[in-house]
């Protein structure tokens, strides 16, 4: 886990990436979201869902796969227009 926390967001560089989880959240998952250990992505998963995200509200970048794993695919993904703001979180 320390290794994952050492990797910063490739877009803004300010914070470590967090996993984006999908499905109906349990109390533990809601607490994880509140403490900024994970991002809740919604109640259903589709094939192209993003699974890593930046918790920085000003950045809001999200990725379909861990950006430090498959660099060539990550670069192609970054060439596509990114949504403005964090679209994969919701406030309670």
From TrEMBL:
Instruction: Provide the species name.
Output: Chlamydomonas incerta
- The protein here is known as Uncharacterized protein
């Amino acid at each position: 886990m320390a290794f994952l926390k050492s990797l910063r967001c490739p877009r803004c560089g300010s914070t470590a990436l967090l996993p984006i989880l999908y499905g109906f959240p349990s109390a533990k998952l809601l607490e994880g979201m509140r403490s900024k250990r994970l991002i809740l992505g919604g109640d259903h998963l589709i094939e192209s869902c993003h699974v890593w995200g930046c918790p920085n509200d000003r950045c809001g970048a999200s990725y379909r796969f861990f950006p430090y794993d498959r660099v060539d695919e990550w670069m192609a993904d970054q060439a596509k227009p990114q949504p403005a703001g964090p679209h994969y979180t919701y406030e309670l």
